């Protein structure tokens, strides 16, 4: 994993940012369209519920629009995802006060499976892969939210450590440590069902 993959902000995006900061709602909506998929993906894996994730993204974008005056430049994507992530944490804190949702009540979206669909595979292979996908998703769900966030950003979305540190507003050393702990916990979780894993991953 490279230390930095800072996205290059093109002139068009910079223009949208400037117009949005000046109060142009259409310009902000253009930025929303650009980043809504990644924002939803992160929110879904944190909240494990489609409706809750959609609401958190909507609330996060609304907070971002209201806070545009405080944007100091730099990586707009990181700034936006930080607000969405913090909104998800607020939802998780409310859930914790009310009692944890049962995993049986959570929604697993096909669009967020770890592996892509291979239309050439046999039905039994597809069934095994889907079972593995759900098992991996359940393993990610079992992680504490702080570890889940950095693991999703790093290993699922491929963000570099420095951008993850910016999104979660933590030192890079802390981010690396959390990713390492998350990977270790997920690996231990997956070892509970070794028969689902590819042979190279079995103990």
Features:
disordered N terminus, 66% helix, mainly alpha, Rna Polymerase Sigma Factor, Chain: A, 203 residues, 8 helices
Strand fraction equals under 5%
CATH class category name: Mainly Alpha
Query: Structural class, from secondary structure content?
Result: mainly alpha
Distance between the termini: 25 Å
Low-confidence stretches: 1-7, 100-118
Tell me about the largest β-sheet: none
Shape: elongated
| Percentage of residues assigned to helices | 55-70%
Count of discrete structural domains: 1
Number of helices: 8
Do you know the CATH architecture? Orthogonal Bundle
The gyration radius over C-alpha positions equals 18 Å
Number of DSSP strand runs: 0
Mean pLDDT: 80
Question: Can you offer a commentary on this structure?
Answer:
- The longest helix has 23 residues, at 25-47.
- This protein has 8 helices and no strands.
- By secondary structure, it is mostly helical.
- Residues 1-7 and 100-118 have low confidence and may be disordered.
- 66% of the residues lie in helices and 0% in strands.
- The chain has helices spanning 11-21, 25-47, 50-66, 76-98, 123-142, 145-156, 161-168, 172-190.
- The chain has one domain: Rna Polymerase Sigma Factor, Chain: A, CATH 1.10.1740.
């Amino acid at each position: 994993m490279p230390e930095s993959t800072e996205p290059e902000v093109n002139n068009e995006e910079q223009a949208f940012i400037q117009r949005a900061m000046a109060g142009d709602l259409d310009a902000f909506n253009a930025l929303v369209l650009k980043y809504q998929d990644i924002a939803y993906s992160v929110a879904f894996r944190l909240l494990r519920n489609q409706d809750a994730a959609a609401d958190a993204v909507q609330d996060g974008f609304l907070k971002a629009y209201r806070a545009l005056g405080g944007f100091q430049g730099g990586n707009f994507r990181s700034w936006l995802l930080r607000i969405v992530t913090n909104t998800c944490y607020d939802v998780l804190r409310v859930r914790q006060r009310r009692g944890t949702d049962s995993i049986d009540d959570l929604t697993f979206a096909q669009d967020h499976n770890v592996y892509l669909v291979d239309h050439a595979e046999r039905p039994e292979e597809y069934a095994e892969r889907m079972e593995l996908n759900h098992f991996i998703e359940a393993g990610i769900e079992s992680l504490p939210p702080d570890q889940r966030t950095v693991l999703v950003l790093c290993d699922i979305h491929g963000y570099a450590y420095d951008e993850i540190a910016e999104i979660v507003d933590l030192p890079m050393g802390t981010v690396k440590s959390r990713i390492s702990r998350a990977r270790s916990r997920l690996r231990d979780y997956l070892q509970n069902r070794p028969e689902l894993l590819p042979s190279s991953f079995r103990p």
